[in-house]
Amino acid sequence: MATIEEQIKALEEEIFNTQKNKATEHHLGRLKAKIAKLKAQLELQKIKGGGVGRRYYIKKSGDATVALVGFPSVGKSCLLNHLTASRSEVADYQFTTLEVIPGVMHYKNAKIQILDMPGLIKGAAKGRGRGREVLTAARAADIIILLGDVFNYRIDILERELYEAGIRVDKQPPNIHIAEENRGGLSVRSTLPLTNMNEAEIADIIRTYGIINAQVTVREDITVDDLVDFLAGNRIYIPSIVAINKFDLKYIGVEKRIEEIIGKRAYLPISAITGQGLEELKELIYDRLGFIRVYLKPKGEKTDLDEPLVLLNGSTVKVVCEHIHRDFVNLFRYALVWGSSAKFPGQSVGLDHELIDGDILTIITKRR
Question: Which one, 34, 98, 148, 187, has the greatest CB density within 10 A?
Answer without folding.
Answer: 148
